[in-house]
Request: fold
Amino acid sequence: MTVLLLLAGGGFGAGIFGSLLGLGGGILIVPLLTFGFGLPFREAVGVSLVCVIVTSSAAAGVYLERHLANLRLGMLLEVFTASGALVGGLIAFLLPDRVLAGLFAILLAYTGVTMLRRGATAAREDARAVGPGADPADPADLADPPGAFRAALAGPGYRPARLGAGIGGSLFAGIVSALLGVGGGIVKVPLMHLVMGVPLKVATATSNLMIGVTAAASAIVYLMRGGIDPLVAGPTAVGVFAGAMVGSRVAQRIDLRLLRLLFVAVLALTAVQMTVRALG
Amino acid sequence: MTVVAPVGAGTAASRAARVDASIARVLRAGTLLSIGLLAIGVALMASAGRSPLDATWPELDLGRIPGDLLALRPEGFLWLGLLATLSTPLLRVGAAVVGFLGAGERRMAGLGIAVLVVIALAVVVAQGTAA
Reply:
């Protein structure tokens, strides 16, 4: 009973943190399950993928209703994130736990650096104008001829650029997601925003929409190869869902700068632990 | 005098909004169903005093799920909840395909079908490589 409550409580904490900081929660769940509950790395990844799907499905519906997510762009890219996730899911069963832990340590360090820089980026994004002369509600103001495929992917005031890079990056994001049990937003959001020129809020919402399908592709591989423990996944997923719901409601009232610094400190500590595990 | 709107004016946006709304409904229903089933499974596990860290966990056997549900065994609800969780994003893609076909956007529908083909491939490959 105690372990059950601790799992649900840990999931709740990961859900709140993830929701407040715009992450799927997978980056916290894998260390929680491996260090906190002694699960093998691959089993922790399987459970984390389930939790990531739950949070993605819950949030994606809201993003679609608010017309923040670009469904068409998401569907193009998720063909490739799902393909990457399929490949990554198969590779995950070939690699030793130590290698996966080492890769996770690298991801943690990268995420920490990204979180530190995100505050300034978000502030710049809010201040940026759509552009002179463009009607923000009319994609037809963009330069593509009507009927062109890229025009179908355009949104209010923007047109995704460098589709080839977006496709390649999406494949990579899918592999990372499947290997490490994360949503892959840490790759997809910068990819769409910085490389493809999609506004940050749209990139975040579209990434969230894609995470469900990406994680489902690899979770199926984990499930069919006996890599998902329902007894651990159940309480953790319920906790993560409850935490994400609470987090989305209190986000406006919390000073995210302090939270971000605390989170980076947790990531740094976890990265060190993962590195020790990889080397040990 | 009747004012006739230009053909196609506003229709693309309203069609897109309808597709988005129908997908959002699928996601909401799928999430609630998944979490509801998982929560019941967790409650049954707690009432039975079972530890989530049991050395072995119950294998997925689709044929056993109805019996487990009727007997109120936690594994039935947990497995069904997990299957509902994994199916929700795929149903979302299916809803998008139907919506895009209805809107005459065959290229976008094709992308959705491609996603479903990749998922089907994942099932086949995982089955073929399972120990």
